[in-house]
Design brief:
It is built from three helices and six strands. The chain is an alpha+beta fold. The protein has a single domain (2-125), classed as 60s Ribosomal Protein L30, Chain: A (2-Layer Sandwich). It starts with a strand and ends in a 6-residue tail after the last strand. Belongs to the RutC family. This is Reactive intermediate/imine deaminase. InterPro entries: RidA (IPR006056), RutC-like_sf (IPR035959), YjgF/YER057c/UK114 (IPR006175).
Length: 131
Amino acid sequence: MIEFINTPQARATGLPFSQAVRVGDILYLSGALGNKPGALELVSGGMEAQARQTMENIGQVLRENGLGFDDVFKCTIMLADMAKWADFNKVYVRYFKSDRLPARSAFGANGLALGAEVEVECCAYMPRAGN
């Protein structure tokens, strides 16, 4: 079974992708940016502000699906400037327990949507009821 997940707020942006897709016991979250929820406008304040908002946006999608950061097992991080990797990490580690850090890849990207400094996509374990 494949389930395509979009909240009304996500649909309001009119973007051509699903906020998340559930396939079996895995929830695949689309890449999240540091945009204000429901808007195509990045928060101000640079990398750390965008990183916080990005992680908050991910947290919102997880909560809407009955999950939390403990359920995330893989993240892919895209940075517009790899020199800001350490700045991103300062924010990122606040969202995970030190013994439950997801597997992760990070790479530099030549241009992210909306001119963002960071984009993060995640996969989370979402067992079906009764499993």
